[in-house]
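Today's session is about reading a structure prediction critically. Students often jump straight to the picture, but the first step is always the sequence itself: look for stretches that repeat, for charged clusters, for runs of hydrophobic residues. Only then move on to the predicted structure, which in these notes is written as discrete structure tokens rather than atom positions. Here is the chain we will use throughout the hour.
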Amino acid sequence: MRRSRLNSAPTQKDRTSDQGENLWARSQREAAQRRREQEAAARDRAEAQKKKESWSASATGLHSSLPTSSQPARSSSSASSWPQQPPSTARRSNQRSSSRATSSSGRSAQSTSPRSTQRARVSASDQPETASSRAATPRSAVDARPTYSQSPRARAESSRKAQRSSRAAEDVTSQTHFRQVISSVEPDHLSPTEIPFQAVADQSGVPIASVARGSSPHRSWSSHEVGGAQQARIPRAAVAVVLVIALAVVIGLVLKNTVFANAAEDSAADATTQQTLPVTSADSPNTNVSSGKDAAGAAASPVSITLSFAGDCTLGTDESFDQDTSFNAAFQSKDDPSWFFANVASIFAADDLTVANMEGTLTTQKQRADKTFAFKGDADFAQVLAKGNVDAASLANNHSKDYGDQSYQDTIQNVEAAGIPTFGFDRIAYLTVKDVKVALIGTYVLDQGTDVIPSMEQNIRAAQEEGAQIIAVYPHWGNELDETPDSTQVQVAHAAIDAGATVVVGSHPHVIQGLEKYQGRYIVYSLGNFCFGGNTNPTDPDCMIFQQTFQVTGTTVAQDDQITTIPCRVSSSTSINNYQPTPAKGSEKERIQAKIDQRTNAIGDSVSKARAEASSAQA
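Below is the predicted structure for this chain, in token form.
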């Protein structure tokens, strides 16, 4: 509903006053008085206009001859018959004409009589034009422009007041008081001063009483045209925002799928190109297996590398053992090297690198070392490791020279002939997996104790200089059948981590010992036996596989807890050691895992004891 141009809205004070209705009536009477004064002034102007028009009879004749059926023709006539206006007045007249033409589009009737005659006829009436009078008047006798009884200056001031009232009308409380005042006016007894409100309401097709009672679909007296436009813009803006967000999500998903697809292709390529590692020379002090890329070519994006560690693998027997139940007899009877690791081969095939301790000799030497147990096997026994997906073997143990130094060299040659790199003592194996360089260091602690630390640290520094990103130290240490590590194990392990080792995994005690996390790196003190040909009925058949996944970015290896312990037994049989290590299941798995957890919790005492001994030694 538009505001009336004849009466401005009551002030805020009048709306909230208890005498608001009387104030409103008084304002109506004052408005009517102003209108009568303005109409008198209009009549005077009309008389003056008549006198001015008499000087141009030819112009009047031209006006009467012009057609009356089109708006442009009437406008041209009016421009010819009316005196020339000043520029400012002409501009205001043009602006009024444009706005009036827009507001009266529903009743675009055209007049054939001069403007002066029409103005005189309208001004002669005491009552302003109403909707009913307009309906009874022929279209040819009604000017298309509404007649204003206010001067241009007064109309401008009224328009500004209407705009201020429109803004003030947004206040819900103010609207409520204003509507209460108007609701007292019924359409059946509107006073002459209130008729203009009725006329404006009729132009919009809604009675003023309906607006006053709140039955109109419009919310308030403020311009609903403007409000509607704002409401229309808000949903469109919201829709635009939603569309932009949806487009961004779609683009992100496309990019994400592309990245994942490329990563999957890279992983598939890595899986297809991963082959058995090449044989290295037994004469070289270091075993170096590489794809040809050094540390400078390390991948800048994160790379995931999973390493698995298995315990003591004694592929042979002592000559004093019962040969019918020995490992050698089992190898001959099965006639299939893959049988021994058949239950764990899939685990080792799924990782990136599998490391085991090869404890014994594969040689034809006959001169046995003077010791309680000396283990020897055939060269073909190396196929047990190869068929079981073992990728590297440590020879740093107390049985790698059971038949002399030559047996040690024979073992290196026979194992590496099966495609498995070896390492230990002063020999470091370098393997490149997924463009990540891994160094494997085997440390023999039994004979030297903590005196081995300087040489171990030297090997770690050498690996760092070679650009190794992952440095795994595999020490052979501890006391047989001890369930907790001794102070020497702890000191050597901590020294390895302090020097730069990424992980430390030990063997020799033939039983499980716990795990320790030191300086963000993991230490496994003993994995126990694994494929153990040294005894058909070992004291403790329980063992485990330790796995850790490293996230490597460039030369940085993240310190995280992506570790797994897999409880196992050295045999698939519960009555005898048949040399086929098997992951435990059900209650057996729970029992072995509980043993691992219990011995891990006991590491604290060993660490405290080791620190106390180290402190006393320094003092």
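Discussion point for the tutorial: Confidence is low (pLDDT under 50) at residues 1-8, 62-150, 171-233, 263-299.
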